[in-house]
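ligand=phosphoenolpyruvate
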Amino acid sequence: MQMNNRRPLVAGNWKMNGNLALIKQIEETFSKTDISHVDVVVCPPFPYLGGFSDNDFALGGQNISHFESGAHTGETAVSMLKEMNCQYVILGHSERRADNYESNELVANKVGLALKHKLTPLFCVGEPEDIRDNGQFFDFIAEQLNAVIKEVGIAAFNDIVIAYEPIWAIGTGKTASPEQAQEVHAFIRQHLAKQDSNIANQCVILYGGSVKGSNAVELFSQPDVDGGLIGGASLNPEDFLSICLAAKR
Ligand code: PEP
């Protein structure tokens, strides 16, 4: 196995949940524990971004507009996330792909825009259940990756975090087994390595889909799993903390 210096990362995706009280609870919980072995990111809904104080964790948005500014009611510009101290943004989440008809090309566009503004994309890929069942999931994921590689080039993956999130495991309680997660993470790395093996080796790849305190250690101990993108469990500060502590040291 090639040496790497990938730093583990755990990101919490609050989705359209949470409130001001949760910000307080999570800040209090995290202030008592050393989490310096892992990069932690919290991605609350946009209105709450300004409610966080200086923390041991970074902030991320859950989306950006594919426009830079202008007459686009209801949208949020990438520059606004920067101004609100975000360092990351979730892009290509399966819920946005489904609810907002985001295509691979649109997601790739947004990844390019985030990089232009020095925001790290948490770029999500992952297959629905029927594609898992018919065995076409490697091709499906390769297509999602290829759209972004085509738009920003392989070198940009130095500054992109990939999250593998099988759709059948998101919010369902049906976690991928550590072996299933590892198999796809290794595939993603090999796919990037066809173009640049160093970049593939250094790229941080997260697993997402019903990660909990009780399964995080096993998932994160897989060689190509560098951390997690956490939905439901990130709304419980104690659970989220225990997931962060499960990251590799
Ligand atoms: C997610 O929404 O990115 C996610 C992984 O959700 P959950 O952890 O609830 O499955």
